[in-house]
Each structure stands twice: as structure tokens, then as C-alpha cells.
Specification:
By secondary structure, the chain is α/β, with parallel strands linked by helices. The chain has one domain: Glutaredoxin. Helix content is about 30%, strand content about 20%. The chain has 5 helices and 8 strands, in the order αββββαβαβαββα. The strands form 2 sheets. The protein has a 6-stranded mixed sheet, covered by helices on one side. Strands 2-3 form a two-stranded antiparallel sheet. β5, α3 and β6 form a beta-alpha-beta unit. It is globular.
């Protein structure tokens, strides 16, 4: 018996099917509730894909109003860093790509701190103990703020995907997002982004 032929697919149905796949992948990787995404150690992290984006000065949005308290109980406000280039990194201790990029971020901090560049971390999961253990292991000297209640992440909505950890923002001297990396930052790419903003 001859096999039955599959029904002929129209160009429209093929396009619809092709469009559905990226949408399904996007929905599968995104979400607004991050409370359960940081509770399963190495196996449970959700990372961005390392996409780096630079934003031309005329296309940048409003300055970000990022405020918090560091693990050393020091108040932080992005507004206090106007006139500087601010690099903000979203991380947590058991996130594998966060561990991978930590030495590079520390090196960037050391290399750029005399050029008007500040780094600040936003930790979306850890209490002080695990965060400080991470900082000690990787010799991190720039500060981080805990954000277990996602208040800081809420202030970053539209700039950082809530489930893309790590993520890094480069903010210009006016406090506007000039560049972003969703996922682990390639240090050469991040340095080039910072250099571009310094030169503005």
C-alpha cells in the first residue's frame, strides 16, 4: 500500500510555523516572577545568551533611579554617580557564568577606577554570608547590593530581562543606559563599551 502523502503546506502555514518557534523559545526563557529561578544551585540558573547591545546617545532613555544598600550597610544611589560611568552587574553566587566573569569584572574595576568608572553589583539571591564568600573567593573589591525582594530589578525593568543572570549595564555620565550585555560579558566587548562611553 502506498503511503499517504502529507497535506500540502501553504507558504502562509510555513511562515506561521517558523514564526511560532522563536516565540515559543522566547516565552520559554522569559518570565516576570524570578522568585523560584534562583533556588536550585548550578542546575537552576537561567542565563542570557551573551548578546551585547550599544545604544547611541540620542536614543538613550531616561536616567535610571537605582537605589539600595550594600552588604556593608552603605547607601547607594545611581544619582550620586552622575558625571561618572557606572557599570552595574546582576549576579548571584551559585550562577556558573557569574563565577566565570567575576575575575574579569574585578580586573575591569581595577583598570578603570581611576578613569571615572564605578562598578556596582546587584545580587538577586544571596544573603550576606554567601555573597561575601563569593567576593572573598574571587577577590572582589567593588560593592554589591542584595535584591532578594526584586525592588532594584523592578527599577531596571525594560533594561534587564528578569531571568537573564548575569546581566551587565553600562550607564553614561547622565545615568542613562548606554550599553548592555545579557548573559556573561566578554571582557573585551565590555571594555570596548566602557571605552566608548568614557570617550563621549
Amino acid at each position: 500500500m502506498m503511503p499517504r502523502h502529507a497535506p500540502r503546506r501553504t507558504r502562509r502555514s510555513l511562515l506561521a510555523a517558523a514564526g511560532a518557534l522563536p516565540a515559543a523559545l522566547l516565552l520559554g526563557g522569559c518570565g516576570t516572577d524570578t522568585s523560584d529561578r534562583y533556588d536550585s544551585g548550578d542546575a537552576g540558573y537561567i542565563s542570557g545568551d551573551g548578546v551585547a547591545t550599544e545604544i547611541a546617545p540620542e536614543e538613550r532613555g531616561e536616567p535610571l533611579d537605582v537605589v539600595g544598600t550594600t552588604y556593608d550597610d552603605e547607601d547607594f544611589a545611581a544619582a550620586d554617580h552622575r558625571g561618572e560611568v557606572l557599570v552595574l552587574n546582576v549576579w548571584y553566587a551559585s550562577c556558573p557564568p557569574c563565577r566565570k566573569e567575576a575575575p574579569d569584572l574585578q580586573a575591569i574595576h581595577e583598570d578603570y577606577q581611576d578613569q571615572g568608572v564605578s562598578l556596582i553589583g546587584v545580587n538577586v539571591r544571596d544573603a550576606a554570608g554567601p555573597a561575601r564568600a563569593f567576593e572573598e573567593k574571587y577577590s572582589i573589591t567593588y560593592p554589591s547590593m542584595p535584591d532578594v525582594d526584586a525592588e532594584i530589578m523592578y527599577s531596571l525593568r525594560g533594561q534587564v530581562a528578569p531571568n537573564a543572570v548575569p546581566s551587565t549595564l553600562v550607564m553614561d555620565r547622565e545615568g542613562r543606559v548606554a550599553a548592555r550585555v545579557s548573559g556573561a560579558a566578554d571582557p573585551s566587548v565590555l571594555r570596548a563599551m566602557i571605552d566608548t562611553v568614557i570617550a563621549e
